[in-house]
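Let us practice reading a record.
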Amino acid sequence: SKFKSQNMRRGRSKNVREVTNFQQAPYGQKKNPFQPMSIFSEDEIEAIHQASLKVLCDTGMDIQSPRAVEILKREGAMIGSDGRRVRFDPDFVMEKISTTPSEFTLHGRHKGRHVHVGGQSVINTLVSSAPNVSDLDRGRILGNFEDYSNLIKLGEILNTVHALGGYPVEPCDLDVSERHLHAVSAAARLSTKPLFGYAIGSERMLDAIEIVRIGRGIDRETLLKEPSITTVVNANSPLVYDKALLEGAIEMAEHNQPVIYTPFTLAGAMAPITVAGALVQQNAESLAGLAFHQCVNPGAPAIYGSFTSNVDMKSGSPAFGTPEYTQATIASGQLARKYKIPLRASNANASNAPDEQSVYESQMSLWACLLGQVNFILHGHGWIEGGLCASYEKVILDAEMNQMMEAFLMPSPVNSDTLGVEAIAEVGPASHFFAAQQTLDRYETEHYNPMLSDWRNFESWRDAGSETASQRANKIWKQLLDDYKEPKLAPEVEEELSGFVEKRVSDGEAAPL
C-alpha cells in the first residue's frame, strides 16, 4: 500500500493501462533439446581436469570451519599442521563426487511449481544479492524490504522465472540480526516457486530451512526426501572456503538440500589471467566444495557453480557478458557434464543502467548458458552494475529476452504439414500468405507474442511519444504489480509460520558469527 501511494504520486495510475502489447507465454519449465557446444577438445578438458586435481593435491584449500575440517579428516582428506590447509587426493575427490545426483527435483509450494534440475532442463531465477535497487522514477537507492517484496512479486507473476536464487535486493532497512527471518518468510508468503536461504552460519540456515518447510506445509521427513531450498556457497577465491558458509552448507547437506558451490574467479584478479588457468582454479574450488558436500551426506544433491569472467585490468572492475565469460561458461558445461553434475551459471552484465549495453552483454551471457547447457541460470532477471543493483526495468527486459530464448528452445517440426507445399500452391506466384489456410489455422499458436516489442511504423511510434524499451518496461512492471494477487497460505500454515518467526525473534535470533 505504501508503494502504491508513492507511485500514484508519481502519476503511475495514469499510465499503467496504456500498456497494450504485454503478453506472456504460458508458464512452464523448458528443456534444451540441442547438443551442447564445446569450446575445448576432450583432451583439453582432461588437461584442465588433471590440473585441477593437482592443485587440490599439492596446494590444497584453506577450510576455515573447524567442524568442516573434522568432517574432511574423518573421511580421509589430508589435513595440514595448521589445521586449516586441506589437501585432497585425486582418487578421494573422484570417489566423493561420484555420489552427487545427476538430476533431482526442486520443490515449490505445490506440484505445478516443482522444477527439474539437471539433464536438459533449464531453471531461470531473479537477480540476487544486490545491495541497491533502481527504477526510472526514483533512480538508484539502497535496498529495502518494500522493494525486496515487490521484486519477489514480479518473480512470482513472470512466467520466465522458475525459482528464487537469493534476495533480489538486500532489505537493508531490516536489522541484520533478524533480517533472514523476515525476508525468507515474506518469500514463502509471496511466492509459490522454490525458495532460497543464505548459508551465513548454521542457525540462519536452519531457520531458512524450517521456514520453507512450514511454507510448503510438509513434515520434516518429507523435507528430507524433497529438496525445497537452495543456497550458494562461494569460495573466497583463490582457494578459501570461509567458516560461516561451510557451517550453513553442512546443515543443507544434512537436510538433503542442494548447495551451489560457486567460485568467484575473475581472471587476472582472483584467478590466473588466462581462461584456461581461471578454469583450472574454478574447477578445483568447485570440486572441493562438491566433495565436501558428499562427505557430509553421500547422495545429497548439489550443483557445480560457474562464475568465471575477466576484469578491466586498468581499473580492476569486473566485466561480464564478455567473450571470456562466454567461453568460460561453455567450457564449464563441458566440465560439469564430465562429472555428471548439474551446472549453474549467470545472466550477468556490467552496465550501470538498463540500457543497450546491459542487453547485449546479457544476451552474450544467456547464449553462453544455452550453448553450454546450463541447468540453473542465476541472476536471470534484473541484474545491472555488475551485481550491485537490481533494476525493475531490467527485470522486464530480461523477461523478454528469456521468453525469446524459451521460444528458441522449441524449434518447429519438419513434416509434410509444416513444409508448406500446399500453402505455396494455394497462394501461387506474386501474392501473400496472410489469408492462406495454413496461416489462418496456425495464427493464434504460431506467431510471436511480444512482451515489449512495439511493431508500429516510425511515424506512429514517434507521434505516440517515441518510447524506448526501458520506458515501456517501466510501465509493464508497474502493471504487473497492480495485477499481482498474493498466493495466500492456508490459515494453519500462516499461523505456524508467524509463530515460528515471532519466537525466533524473541529468542534473539541466530547466534553471533
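A brief commentary: The first helix runs from residue 2 to 9.
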